[in-house]
Amino acid sequence: MSPDASIGDGSSIWHLAQVREGVRMGENCIVGRGAYIGTGVEMGDNCKVQNYALVYEPAKLGDGVFIGPAVVLTNDTYPRAINADGTLKSAHDWEPVGVTIGEGAAIGARATCVAPVMIGPWATVAAGAVVVKDVPAYALVAGVPARRIGWVGESGMPLQPGADDGAWVCPATGDRFAESNGTLTKEIV
Question: Whole-angstrom Cα distance, residue 57 to residue 55?
Answer without folding.
Answer: 7
